[in-house]
């Protein structure tokens, strides 16, 4: 399993109950990535924004603030609806997906 990032207010991986919850979060990452990819393929920006918002809030509490930060950047990018932002949205989405994949694969 990929090491967690240190973060205040996150679950303690040394506590068995917390470790189990962290495991559930990591185990759900591939499904979240698949959902993000599907939303991107369907150009469903509302779903991408909702998923990014969920990850922004949840990831830090599980000890993954970098995922939360990447999700926040994507969410912020989605608030800018200008044509020039489409390239940035894709870049932020790809960054978030790559980060989630790396944690899910334990690399």
What do these coordinates show?
- The chain is mostly helical and 107 residues long.
- The chain has one domain (16-105): HPT domain (Four Helix Bundle (Hemerythrin (Met), subunit A), Up-down Bundle), CATH 1.20.120.
- 74% of the residues lie in helices and 0% in strands.
- It has four helices and no strands.
- The longest helix has 26 residues, at 16-41.
- The chain starts with 15 loop residues before the first helix and ends with a helix.
- The model has no long low-confidence stretch (mean pLDDT 85).
Secondary structure blueprint with pairings:
Layout: H1 16-41, H2 45-61, H3 65-79, H4 85-105
The structure class reads mainly alpha
Question: What's the total helix number?
Answer: 4
- Tell me the radius of gyration: 14 Å
Overall number of structural domains? 1
Sketch the topology as an H/E string, one letter per element: HHHH
What is the level-2 CATH architecture name? Up-down Bundle
Give the gist of this structure.
The protein contains four helices and no strands. The protein has helices spanning 16-41, 45-61, 65-79, 85-105.
Key attributes of the depicted protein:
107 residues; mainly alpha; Four Helix Bundle (Hemerythrin (Met), subunit A)
């Amino acid at each position: 399993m990929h090491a967690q990032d240190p973060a205040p207010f996150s679950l303690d991986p040394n506590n068995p109950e917390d470790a189990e919850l962290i495991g559930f979060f990591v185990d759900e990452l591939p499904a979240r990535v698949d959902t993000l990819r599907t939303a991107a393929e369907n150009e469903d920006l509302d779903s991408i924004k909702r998923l990014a918002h969920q990850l922004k809030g949840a990831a830090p509490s599980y000890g993954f603030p970098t995922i939360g930060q990447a999700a926040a950047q994507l969410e912020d990018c989605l608030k800018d609806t200008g044509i020039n932002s489409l390239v940035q949205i894709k870049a932020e989405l790809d960054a978030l997906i790559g980060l989630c994949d790396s944690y899910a694969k334990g690399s």
